[in-house]
Each structure stands twice: as C-alpha cells, then as structure tokens.
Amino acid sequence: MIKKLSKLSTHLRVIREINRLLRESDLERLLDSICQILKRERKYIDVFTGILETGEQVSFIDNFKQKNIFSIHCIKKAIESERQLIVEDKRLNCKGCDFRTLNHFAAIFTFETSAGRMFLCVISKHRLDEEEIELLNEVTELMKISVDKIKTEEALRKSEEKYRLLAENVRDVIWTSDLNLNFTYLTPSIERVFGYTAEEFKKLNPEDYLTPESLEIVKNVLSEALSSDKIRKKPSASKILELEAYRKDGSKFYIELNASLLRDSNGKPYGIIGITRDITERKNIEKALKESEKTLRGILKASPVGIGIAEKRVFRFVNKKFCEMVGYSPEELIGKNSRILYETDEEYERVGKIKYLQIKEKGFGIIETRFRRKDGKIIDVLLSSSAIDPSDLSRGIIFTAMDISERKRARKKLEESEKKYRAIFENTGTAMAIIEEDTTISTVNSEFEKLSGYKKEEIEGKM
C-alpha cells in the first residue's frame, strides 16, 4: 500500500513539475527538462525524445543526440503500433540497436504534434508496469500540448514581426478608427505624410487635418455607406476619395483615402479600416498636364492649318480649320472613319498604304490626295502625318491637312502659260535669247542655234 502511494505521489509530482514547464518558450529546453524530470523522479537509465522527419531521418531534441540505442526500425515499429512499443532485450530482435545486448527494458511512445510526429524513448532497469505506462502516456499528452503551444506562439511571433516590419516601412498610412473617426491604430508613416506622430494624430479632431470641404465629403460618404448597409443588408464596397488635408505645419496637400467598414461576427459595422497616401505630386502633374493640354488645344484651334488626331484612321480630334476645310462639324467627324472624306475606296486604300509605310520607314509621311467636302465639292489636299508613338502606330497619328486646290490651279495655269509662250518663243522666226541680270544666258530658241552655230546645251547657262 505504501509502495503504491509512493508511486502515486511520484506520478503527481512528475505531472506537476511538467505542468510548470508549460510556460517555457524554447522547445529544445522544454523537452530536455521533461526528459531530466522523468530520469530523476522515475530513476530511469535514460530518457530521450525527438521528431521523426520525412524519409529515414530522426531528429533528437535533447542532449542524448549521440546515442544510438534504438534504430529507425524500432521507431517506425512504434509508429506502426500507433501509440507505443514496449520492448525487452529478450524479445528485441533488431540488428540496428545497441540495446539488444543490454539487460534492460524499454518503451517508445509516439504522438502527433504541430512540429511533426514525435517520440519519447524510456530505458529502465525494470519492466514498465501499467501505472508507469499510464504516466508516460500522460507525459506525452502534456508534451503535445506544450509543443503545439510553442509552435503556435512561434508562428504568431513571426507573423507579428512580418506585419510589424511591413507597417513600419510602408510609405502609405494604414489605419483603423471607430465610426466617429477616432483613430485606434496608425502606422508610423503617419509622421512622414502629416508631420504628426501616431500618438499626436490620435488626439486630433477630423477638422484639424481635413479642410471643411473634404470633411463634409467624408461625413456624407460614411453616412451613405452606413445607411445603404442597413437597407441592403449586405456589405458596402470600399470607397476611394481624393481629399485636401492639412499638415502639422498648416500647409495644404492632397491625399487619396481608400476605406471600408470593419464588421463583427454578426456583420454589424463597428469601425473603419483604410489606407491614406500623399498624392500631391500626382495632382500637381495632373494639373500641369491639364494646363498643357489646354494650351495645346488652344494652339490647335487657332492654327491656320487643318490639324487632327486619328487612331486606326478614325478621327479622335479635329481643329476648327480642318472642319472649315471639309465642311463638317467636329461632332460629325469625331468617332467616324476618315473614309467619309475620300472619293473612292481605292484612293482611301492608296493613301493609307503609302502614308503608313512612310511613317514606319521615316517617322512621318507626306502625300497629296483629294477630299470630297460635305457639300460634294472636291478639293486637293496635302496630308502630313507622324506617329504619336513610333513604336506603336495603334496609339494613333497626328496629321495636318492643307487645301492646295488654289495652288494646283495656279500651277496648272502657269504651266499652260509657259507652254503657250514657249511655242511663241520657238516659232517667232527670229533668233532670240533670254539673258539674266548677271549676263547668264538662260534660254535660246532654235533660230538662235542656227544663227550662232551653237547648240542649246552648249550655250545655255553660259555668260
């Protein structure tokens, strides 16, 4: 009876001491301590533990790493038995074990943990009775709880560290607040964006960092989101707002706010999570671009030459002069294919083929063609085109168009006049020559050739 009570007392002491170790955060130190407690309290010859890894590998966790008492065969045999394997030197028949030569008893216990399949090996001078086996089973349960706890805490620490590093180094401000816009969390980047530390910013009222107009926008959007959420009974989408804010030094700047509602387990909104970024540089670029576009459009509209932009031969922009030239309004041309201006399909295809080939080869193209105005009148046009992006013609071309009808008519009249006067010059029956101001003979007729004995090519251009 006394012996039984002593065993029970030892059993309770072992469990109590191991329970005290559950606060340990170092896995190797924890398992080594458990092995030492069992050796000390149960007078075992040896106790060691480890993890059965993939393949044929076994990792020993405590200070018995160099011992080879059990082979992989024994460990696997214990795993196959699902829980434990009790062996004696007389019954053990494994060439890989040194234990087979000893006059000892042993047990291998295996159990699943978040660290993998683990084992606890005990070597004793005496045969393990049922009470000892029950104790060792309880110990493995405590080991499982301890290992799972340490692994969970380790994973949590790694996750917290990862997100802490992310929060500390992100350029945008990640934040949470309650529904009254009182901040509950702010990343350190708040100081870079607003000039306030996180703790300083939490003490501010919305009107301290938002302009009145922007604050009104935020309140309206939040109110609308909460109202629609109640009506629809489903989560509202995140909102992206561009707002004007104040820095700590009082200067104004632009921010982009992307926010959505936080919900409890019942789907009820209780707060807001958002990301805020400084978009001042982007807004300044957009403003400069708009001003540049405005200036450019003013130049294009005032130009005395017809100018337009086309993508895949579809008009995207035409100026006033171009519209006057062809007799159409901008609304009648924009979005329409340029085929509307050509007399025939053949001419439309010819111009496109030659012009785009020139652009590919030289970066620009020049070609004469004929347009049919809205009133049906045919005009002669000189088209000059260049690519907006030479590496990608699908992005469009910018072109100029000049009405050269008068020029062509004048040229034709000039050619006809020259032909007429050339005939008179040649057939006058009198030797004639045209001498320039510098006494250079520019032209002679056939009678002059006869009289002088020189041919035209011998005398023209001479002094």
Number of helices: 15
Specify the CATH class of the largest domain: Alpha Beta
| Total domain modules | 4
**What is the topology, as strand order, of the major beta sheet?**
2-1-5-4-3
In the CATH hierarchy, the third-tier topology of the largest domain is known as: Beta-Lactamase
Distance between the termini: 149 Å
What average pLDDT do the residues reach? Answer: 80
Q: CATH superfamily name of the largest domain?
A: GAF domain
Derived structural class = alpha+beta
Rounded to the nearest angstrom, the radius of gyration is 47 Å
Tell me about the largest β-sheet.
5 strands, antiparallel
Architecture of the largest domain, CATH level 2? Answer: 2-Layer Sandwich
Describe the structure.
The structure is a single chain. This protein is α+β, with helices and mostly antiparallel strands. The chain has four domains: 2-157, Beta-Lactamase, CATH 3.30.450; 173-283, PAS domain (Beta-Lactamase, 2-Layer Sandwich), CATH 3.30.450.20; 298-407, Beta-Lactamase (2-Layer Sandwich); 428-463, no CATH class. It has 15 helices and 17 strands. Strands 2-1-5-4-3 form a five-stranded antiparallel sheet, with helices on both faces. The longest helix has 40 residues, at 130-169. The radius of gyration is 47 Å and the shape is elongated. Residues 54-72 and 88-101 have low confidence and may be disordered.
